[in-house]
Amino acid sequence: MLEVRDLTVRYGGTLAVDRVSLTLPDGPAGLGLIGESGSGKSTVGRAVLRLVRAQSGTVRYNGADVLGMRRLGAYRKAVQVVFQDTEGALSPRMRVGSALTEVLRVHRLVPRGAEAARVVELLADVGLDAEHARRFPHELSGGQRQRVGIARALAVQPRVLVLDEPTSALDVTVQARVLELFERLRERHALSYLLISHDLAVVERLCERTAVLHRGRVVEEGPTRQVLHAPQHASTRTLRAAVPRLPGV
After folding, report:
1. Does residue 33 fall inside a structural domain?
2. pTM of the full predicted structure?
3. Residue 41: which domain range?
4. Please, what sign has the CA dihedral across residues 13, 233, 236, 46?
5. Which of 2, 3, 49, 178 has the smallest count of CB within 10 Å of its CB?
6. pLDDT digits (tens, 9 = 90+) for 97-120
7. Inside any domain, residue 48
8. What is the DSSP string of 24-85?
């Protein structure tokens, strides 16, 4: 469904992404993108979303050239993003219901007057009550804000979600519930996930395949279990060794 070939991104004179190639199949499916801080993971995601400019390479969605698109409306509906920063991702001046309604109106997804009912459906889909529509982001917990961000992404009925460290800002118990939500939504909506994360346990739970980035290049790729439990590249072994372990376990 989504194919990246020889993607290269520079920030000034710095080579952030160096000829990266990835393939994401039809959903339900998950591709994990892991690597140390500064390895280029988030830049790959932003380039796929057309939030940063790629210097060379191709990104294709169902065969269409994404980097050459003049109108991005259809692509924006098909490929959505869930951000790491649950506070910065939502306008502090908009109630949750207004933020979701805006999406529905911009993309003309439901008839005028039907937005409120659809907002309730979206909130229910991510495990929130209808009364959350009246709240501002600062009145929600971190987990609830992330659920609102997921609901906003699902509002346009996407086929791909780019998940950029979606649980790293949450505490462990909240993270577990959000991961259960991601698993359920992936199956219910046949979604494909491009998961950008430094948390190997999260990647193993949500992704069948994993690619490892080191200094902007893919140095290892394969089935997630094989990559994480029998790593071939020194960078992957370093990431694996950094996972905390209890003595004697």
Report:
1. yes
2. 0.91
3. 2-90+158-241
4. positive
5. 3
6. 999 999 999 888 888 889 999 999
7. yes
8. E-SSSEEEEEE-STTSSHHHHHHHHTTSS--SEEEEEETTEESTT-S--HHHHHHEEEE-S-
